[in-house]
Amino acid sequence: MFISTEEEKQISLPLDNEKGSIKSSPMGSNLDYLDGMPLETDLLDLPPPLTIYTDVNVVPEQEKNELEQSISNLEELRQKESSLDKKRKEALNKILDIKGCIRVFCRIRPFLQTEIRRIHEPVTIGLQKVVVKSVGSRKEFRFDKVFHQSTTQEDVFAEVEPILRSALDGHNVCILAYGQTGTGKTFTMDGTKDQPGIIPRVLEELYCQASMDNSSSTTFSMSMLEVYMGNLRDLLAPKTTHRTYDTAARCNLNIQTDKKGLVEIEGLTEVKIPDLAKAKWWYAKGRRSRSTSWTNVNEASSRSHCLTRINISHHGDDWKAKAEISKFWMVDLGGSERLLKTGATGQTLDEGRAINLSLSALGDVIAALRRKRGHVPYRNSKLTQILKDSLGDSSKVLMLVHVSPCQEDVGETICSLSFANRARAIETNGELPEDILNLRQKKILELEEEMREAEEECQVIRNQIQKAEFLLSENKNLILSTYQVPEEKEKTPRNLKEDNVVVNETPAVTDNRVRRTMRCSLPRFMNPTVASRQRQSASEKEIVRRARSFISGTRTSVQFSGSQSLSYSDIPIKSILQDSNRKSRFGEAKTILKESLKCNGSDLKTASLPRSNMVTASDPNLRITLCRHRRRMSDLI
Ligand SMILES: Nc1ncnc2c1ncn2[C@@H]1O[C@H](COP(=O)(O)OP(=O)(O)OP(=O)(O)O)[C@@H](O)[C@H]1O
């Protein structure tokens, strides 16, 4: 940035927050440049350019008024942003209501290399229906959406995205992958490195969406657990000892429901995930934990339900107010078929029973919810108890039923599809007349358009806010320094946010981070180390002790070693103490004090300093001692 040495110099700064690069116009030119390009077009959506004083002694009164005007404009922009965001949320909610709060999709896995492909395939699909032909019978099942064998992970995620937006808007959300073992549940939820599934994509998108929202701050935390044979296992719990599988510690989880109906799992590990890298790291850890348990204790992963929860905390403008939390559940359910197919016995039979029971309980709950029945049987399984507050009224549920294309699996395919159809219950689109369906579709398209427009407008406003905020903060700082306004205002996280040019590189703005930001305002080497703090505290105590003895007539001098620095901000008192070291006669104390105060340009009458400027010490005991010390010193004067 070009800074003039003249008394007053004005520079109009363009800012591109995406690129984050700022360039001032060349001397004498009226054009502004960004990354070497003239900025005429970029300036179109800029608020009226604000003036930044870079080297001033006085900012004219008129400019101050203009600044105030800009502040009120910013307020208007923020209000506009919030109302557009509300409009978008309402449109999305209406869309989800029309589509149904519980949606059931079906995905058919492609043939694997090891599988034999027949000329007449047993499973055929339409846009919203699946037909299964087995010996002499033909069964048709309807779904909200059917994904054919070549559907990509992107296509599947595109259908999940609206529900994700809903989670960010504050709703509880639940995505469930259901189906026979080997039909692709884990592939859909987890995916592979080349073809990431829903969970990694959701994580990525959550951070992306949250970072675009200026109006509130969002933080995320993650928990992962397994439901195995009716027990809950914490997948993110730290292991007690290396290579030890502490079953008791990891299974010791209770499900609690509070008066408001909110579910909490006592003892479940919840980790903060301030950025995407951390989120991915924890997710990978949880996945590994699951497979480790499989290796060590010989439990097949498909014999348990794996649940990943992202808690989304929404902090509004008021950081002191309690954050609103919404839950985003992503569940890879256990395979449903083994009991039927293998005629298992013993432990395997028990596992199969446990899975089937909990799946059937889940089916009952979803069917009851879709029928809008008064009683919903949540208590019938641990799985439904955990998900209780994320399957109910204002929540959004998405069930993805997975089926195999193979002839050998037809029996299980029909079972899975029947289960999913039961979850869809009577409220199926297929049972509605054609004209009503068309009307629905038309309304959805209208709402989608409305939502898109609101979103676009909102984005423009957000850009304007960011630019205005930057210019304002620049001007504000200069006005503050010019008018010597003491900035006593406590720095709340919101203020900090305003003071930053680029807000939210990741959405996580936690208390710790704010504290860190405040600490970071000093260069790192200037922050006290533990040792220096100890030395400083010892030094302070020593000074007080000696000052006391000095005042009470003891002829002890105060020694300052080179490495000991005084933390006193109060210069007169510091110099009094230093002088007292040189001239240690009690009789000279008053003279020393007067001299020292004169030296600092202070009059004795004005020597009583504001409280904020007084000697401070980190140790509360020391603070009391210092107060006494101050009183004695003032008695001397
Ligand atoms: N849509 C798909 N495209 C390509 N490969 C797939 C697809 N779905 C599943 N597969 C492959 O099928 C195999 C079985 O899938 P996966 O392990 O996801 O099944 P699953 O239902 O989770 O099984 P389990 O219940 O045992 O965990 C894997 O090799 C996977 O890569």
Low-confidence stretches: 1-46, 50-57, 292-301, 426-430, 487-526, 549-619, 632-637
Q: Span from first to last CA?
A: 51 Å
**Which fold does the CATH topology of the domain at 104-238 and 251-425 refer to?**
Kinesin
Helix/sheet category: alpha+beta
Ligand inventory: adenosine-5'-triphosphate
Counting H and I runs of at least 4 residues, what is the number of helices?
18
Task: Give the class-level CATH name of the domain at 104-238 and 251-425.
Answer: Alpha Beta
CATH H-level name of the domain at 104-238 and 251-425... which superfamily? Kinesin motor domain
Average the pLDDT over all residues and give the rounded result.
Answer: 68
Q: Strand fraction band?
A: 5-15%
Largest sheet: 9 strands, mixed
Coarse morphology: globular
What would you say the CATH architecture of the domain at 104-238 and 251-425 is? 3-Layer(aba) Sandwich
Helix proportion range:
40-55%
Calculate Rg over CA atoms. 34 Å
GO biological process, one term: microtubule-based movement
Pfam family, one: Kinesin
GO molecular function: ATP binding; microtubule binding; microtubule motor activity
Organism: Jatropha curcas
